[in-house]
Write a structure and sequence with these properties.
The chain is mostly helical and 129 residues long. It is built from five helices and no strands.
Length: 129
């Protein structure tokens, strides 16, 4: 499989950009040490993508370059599992907060966005078919 320069560096560059944004937000919020830690995590992630991208099929998937349909399918299922886990945490957090007489609004918004996103994707995929 041929790898273009943009495909090789796209996700690592995005990881570094996200690290810079996380650091900036944390520094603005008065916690620059936390921001340095978040940037370090994203920088290490980006370094791993570059260093091992050509040697590992899994790193290729993380870079958005699965080498075959089987790995693309794994990526799709893993994304669905991660999304389900996030939705369950949002719903669980909502229930926990309302059980403790708090609003739960933050968790409800995340769960609502996930549900609406799912419905929009489902309708769009059906319409496109």
């Amino acid at each position: 499989m041929e790898t273009t320069m943009g495909a090789r560096w796209g996700m690592p560059a995005f990881g570094l950009l996200l690290g810079v944004l996380l650091f900036a937000a944390s520094a603005i919020g008065g916690q620059p040490v936390v921001g340095i830690g978040m940037f370090a995590v994203m920088a290490i992630y980006s370094l791993v993508l570059v260093a091992f991208g050509g040697r590992s099929e899994i790193i290729g998937v993380l870079r958005g370059q699965p080498v075959d349909e089987r790995l693309a399918g794994f990526n799709l299922v893993a994304t669905a599992v991660a999304g389900l886990a996030a939705i369950l945490v949002a719903l669980g957090g909502f229930v926990w907060q309302i059980a403790h007489r708090q609003s739960g609004t933050d968790f409800a918004v995340v769960a609502a966005v996930a549900g609406i996103g799912y419905l929009v994707a489902l309708v769009w995929l059906r319409w496109r078919d």
